[in-house]
Structure formats: C-alpha cells, structure tokens
Amino acid sequence: MPGAKPPSGASHVSAQGAMGWPGSQCAVDAWYNLAQGPRVDRGRRPWVMRAMKLREVIEALDAEVLVGQDLLDREATTAGAADAVSDVLFFGRPGMLLLTGMTRAPMVRAAEVLELAGVVVVRGKRPDADAVQLAREVEMPLMACPHSLYDACGRLYVRQLSGPLPVPHRPRQPAPGE
Amino acid sequence: MSYPVLGGGFFLAGRAAAETKRRLREAGLAAELVRRVVVATYEAEMNICIHAVSGRIHLRVENDRVKVVATDRGAGIADIAQALRPGFSTASEKARQLGFGAGMGFANMQRCADSFRITSEVGCGTTVTMEFWPRPQTEETGP
C-alpha cells in the first residue's frame, strides 16, 4: 500500500530519520527518489522498509554469533551482499550489514573502515581464525549463517530490511594521459 | 604522516587504512570525506600488499583537503592504461582467495579521489597520488 504507515509496535523501528540523508526522510525515500526521478511525491514509498537490530538478524538467519555477543543491540539500517572486497568498498555505507561468502580477514577490515553494522558469513562457512581475531580487536560483530547467500538476503528482505542506496553514476577520475 | 606497508603481509594489510581513518576523524574532517579517503587508501594498500615488495603510504591534511601518496618498490606496471581498466587484474590466486583481484581497485580509487595520478617504472616501482576535497552535499551518496 503506497504511503501506508507501518503498524505501530515496538518491533517496527521507524526508518524515518534513521540515516539523515539530506532532503529525505530515510534511506528508502532517497532510494525511491533516485530511482524514480524528480516526479515523485516525497513521502510516498512503494513499501515500508525498516532498520533491524542484530538480535533480530541472527534470529531471522538462524545465525551463530562468533564475535560481538554484547554488540547485538546495534542496528543495521541497510544490508548488502558481496563476495569481493572492492565491491564492499564501492557500495558500503555506515550502518550496512554485510552478507558475504568471504571468510578471510580483509573483509572484516573493510567492514571496520566503512563502519558497517556487522558481517554475516553465509553458506555455513566458518570465518578464518585471523578474521575472528581481527573482528574481536575492532569490535565488529561477526556471525555465521547456514543458509545460502540468496536465501539469507531473502530472509532479511521479507523482514523489510532495505538494500543499500544505489550508488549514483560518477565517472572515474581519469589519470593524466589515460 | 606516513605508514610502511609490506608486500605479502596480508594479515597486516588494512592497518594503514584503519590508522588513516582514526587520524582523519581526530582532525575533525567530514565523515563522507573520510570514507572516500579511507576506501582509496585501503585499495592502494592492498595493491602494495599484493604486487610489491614494500611500500609506503603518505598522508597529508591541509585544512579540509587530503593528499594521499602511495609509493612502492616492486615490479611496476608496464601498461598503465590496461591496469586502470575496470576488471583487469593480475592478482595471484592467494590474493583472490582473500577477496581481492576483482580488478576494481584502481576504479574505486579513481571514483573516490578528486584528482588521481599514477606513474610507474617497470622493475622499479609505482606511485599513486590522490587528492581529496569535500564535495557538495548533493553528491554525498556518490562513491
């Protein structure tokens, strides 16, 4: 229902003002406005998206918490999936939950420098010992989930966790002579 | 400030980027600018780890402008245009297992930086110079 209000209740954390994107109520508004162009009436969205606490995330994904049992009150405002560090660096924004098949330390480091909300390793893989150690050092919640990447994303999507904002096209800064 | 980076030191990779982030935050720069600098620094650091023997990342902050120079001793790049092409990579199997070698390193650096220069000498080493300055608010979501 376009423009419908979310049902009231403690489980519905409002997405409004969650991220403070300029000129929009929330990440979903910004996404919708970008996707639709300037014709769109602000505040009318195709669906209501919301942020999720990591506590709800592990429940939704049947995930096991490997690092950050005490950080589960953190809120994931968006979620994204990638299997390459460069891709994470490309679209990762603060507060994003990362779902990935990578198990080594660099993806934890990428999550740290981007200030992501947490990392979920999918397909029943176990993160490496060095990844776990680094996650502990930088206090990055690290979870392992038995489902496939596709299923894990779907489980969060039906619970109304939004994807990352589309990254607007920006031409690469050409090197001199390129 | 400058940080040493060792080639092949995959576990240590990212230290310079994390340290850069901390310093820039302390300097009071905008979060969006810090994110771009750190993403580009991490990519540059990773390139040094994968391809070079050793290198250094220099960081200079002038008011709200940031300059990052990543320089290394290593094999160098024979064809820079080819190396800059998104998707092109010569990373080792070991690096790919770590989640690198997607060929998007330079593309990410070029998107994040406001000025980008690269020079390389085969058999000697490579230097990447990037400058960053704040972008207008409307571009905040840009890479």
Overview of the molecule:
The complex is a heterodimer of chains A (178) and B (143). Chain A has 178 residues and is an alpha/beta fold. Chain A has two domains: 17-46, no CATH class; 52-157, Udp-n-acetylmuramoylalanyl-d-glutamate--2,6- Diaminopimelate Ligase, Chain: A, domain 1, CATH 3.40.1390. Helix content of chain A is 30%, strand content 13%. In chain A, strand 4, helix 3 and strand 5 form a beta-alpha-beta unit. The N and C termini of chain A lie far apart (49 Å). Chain B has 143 residues and is α+β, with helices and mostly antiparallel strands. Chain B has one domain (2-132): Heat Shock Protein 90 (2-Layer Sandwich), CATH 3.30.565. Chain B contains five helices and five strands. A five-stranded antiparallel sheet of chain B has the order 1-2-3-5-4, with helices on one face. In chain B, a hairpin with a 2-residue loop joins strand 2 and strand 3. The longest helix of chain B is centred in the N-terminal third of the chain and has 21 residues, at 31-51. Chain B starts with a strand and ends in an 11-residue tail after the last strand. Chains A and B meet through helix 3, helix 4 and helix 5 of A and helix 1, helix 2, helix 3, helix 5 and strand 4 of B.
Assign the CATH topology of the largest domain in chain A: Udp-n-acetylmuramoylalanyl-d-glutamate--2,6- Diaminopimelate Ligase, Chain: A, domain 1
Tally of structural domains of chain B: 1
Q: N- to C-terminal separation of chain B?
A: 25 Å
Q: What proportion of the residues of chain B is helical, as a percent range?
A: 25-40%
How many whole angstroms does the radius of gyration of chain A measure?
17 Å
**Main sheet record of chain B:** 5 strands, antiparallel
Indicate the CATH class of chain B. Alpha Beta
Number of strands of chain B: 5
The CATH H-level superfamily of the largest domain in chain A is HprK N-terminal domain-like
DSSP strand tally of chain A? 7
Overall body shape of chain B: globular
Spatial strand arrangement across the major sheet of chain A: 2-7-6-5-4
